[in-house]
Design a protein that fits this description.
Elements (H helix, E strand, L loop, with lengths): L2 H13 L2 H8 L3 H15 L4 E4 L2 E4 L1 H28 L5 E6 L2 H14 L4 E6 L2 H9 L5 E4 L8 E15 L10 E2 L8 E5 L4 H11 L6 E6 L5 H6 L5 E4 H5 L2 H4 L3 E5 L5 E9 L6 H11 L13
Parallel strand pairs: 3-4, 3-5, 7-11, 8-9
Antiparallel strand pairs: 1-2, 5-12, 6-10, 6-11, 6-12
Amino acid sequence: MDLLQLRYFQAVARYEHISRAAEALRVAQPSLSRTIARLEAELGSPLFDRQGRRIRLNQYGAIFLRHVDRALSELDDGRRALRDARDTGLGRVSVASETLLTITHVLGSFRAAHPRADVRLFQSNAEEMDRQLRAGQIDFCVASQTLTGPNLESIELAREEVLLAVPPGHWLDGRESVTIPEIADEPFVTTRPGNWQRALLNRLFASEGLTPQLSCEGDEPGASQDMISAGLGIGLIPAMSRQLGTDTRVPVAWVRVNAPDCHRVLTLVWNRDAYLSEAALKFREFVVSRPFMTHRLPEPP
């Protein structure tokens, strides 16, 4: 048993798909399949249930994965600790966020305050962030959706209202507020499943027993306002965008949504068992010690 086998097994267990794991690892699919087969033979137990081309982690694989995750995480932490000890700087901090607009100004301020820190930024949806945290690929997530797990800790950074953006001249242009049933037949610009905008849209409509009509689905939440302004539909946009003045560049009209919980909660999430460099520790202190956004909802009672 070697480290390569363990890393290959970890990737296949995460994706539960040989082709996707091979693509992520940048190895040939037959080579990956042979490596997993050798590992199972060495352990004397199948780690996956196979149904045609589909594979699923079985009970033995789940047990083994917990130990592999811990072992590889310790080795990765040791490698990072050694690198930081040699480094004359503060080390590296890696942060993932669902949309870059949310985190850009924070990272810019942090780099200005700590120029010796090596800052890395990733754009990921909630599922990817969860996987990246557990695999030790990132230090923190700035998440707009709940990430839960036995080793994950989080702290709330901000709450902000989510508004309805409509094209100029739309029949809602000039309205103060609107209910979900009133916009049940409107085409929506939103993100693909897995992103917070889509999750919020589905939740608001489901509470009324409705299903939203979709005109555009994308992977970049920050592009939604451009498509709305172009008249491709209406959509849910965080109040931060209005405060930052993006409607002067991409004109839209703003309407409040008369529905409970039409807001976004931003949290900083990390794996408490993972190694954090000096840069990562300073980043966490920097983020939680100052207002994350100037436009916040009142704290809940």
